[in-house]
Structures are given as structure tokens and as C-alpha cells.
Input
Amino acid sequence: MTWIKTIPYREADPKLKKIYDRVKSPDGQIDNILLAHSLRPHTLTGHMALYKNVLHHFHNTLPKWYLETIGVLVSLLNKCDYCVQHHFHGLKRLLQNDARADEIYAVLQSGHYSKIFEGKYYAGLRYAKELTLLPHAIDENNMDLLRNAGLTDGQILEINQVTAYFNYANRTVLGLGVSTGNEVLGLSPGDDDNEKNWVHA
Output
């Protein structure tokens, strides 16, 4: 599950258990990426606040399926199988179209994004790739390219933050040896209107 000790729900102190109660699924599952924070519960709180606000917030204007697509792309680039599996399943749940999801996945793997993505969606994927692999190469010209493709500055920020979050999550997983085990894949906080609802369902 992880290379470091984790604290299961039954052994959690009241403070940690309270956080677990906020993130566990209706069946009681706590994703291993979240369990990995258990020795420092304040980092779990920070992780969830970032995740919820970056990916599952009602003020985002880009479609959630697209933000999930960026997450899958970043995770593929970082070779983080755990996050690829979870967020590809999440993408499939959002699209409700397995053939379309498989087509997106194949394009992300190949790097030929223009096969199915155009305009701002294509530009956003290119930016996410460069920000992941060559962050030092990003400059103000990138912003002009994104704007010219039709993205607002707020949407550029959304892509930036989702990309940054997944790079953080990927490094948490890869650096601590987090694996899926018997997890149900693709669970996420679904209530975008409630910033404090972290329940994974």
C-alpha cells in the first residue's frame, strides 16, 4: 500500500478519525493516497483542500472531464500508474462513454493531442505537458498562445493549478510507494457546490 507506516481507521485518534470521516466513501474506503498522509494529518487536510478547490469547485469554468483529462495526461507523463488508474476511471464516469474515454486515453499516450482536441483544449494540453516536463521553459509567450487559442486568464489558471496539483499528487504517490491494492477506482468528491464536502463517492 505504501512504503511508510499508515494508520488505519480503526487505530486513528479522534482528530485523524474526524478527517477520515470526511473523506471516506459510503462503503468506508479511504484511498491509499490519503492514508499515506496519516502520520501528519494536517498534510491530509491540506491535500484535500487543494484537491477539492482545484478539481471539484463550482467556480471552475472548464468542463470537469477536461480537467480530469489534464490529470490523466500529467500522470502519464510522470509515469504515475496509481493516479492514471484512478483519474481515468473518474474520466470514464464523467463522460459516460467508454469508447470516447478510450480514444482520449490513446491520444494522451501517443502525444498526438490534435487528433481529437482543437483550439483551447489542444493548447491547454500542450501547456500542461510543458509545465510538467519543462517548467523552466514557460514564459509570457505561453500565455499569449493560450489566450489566442481562446482561453481566458481564469481558465489558464485552472489548467495551471490542475497541472500543479497532479504533479504534487504524482510525487506523493511515487515517492511513498502508494499502490491501489483493492481500492475501488475513480471515487471523488462529487458535490461541487459544497467546498467542505470531501466524501469520495
User: Anything to note?
Assistant: The CA atoms of residues 37 and 44 lie 5 Å apart. The chain has nine helices and no strands.
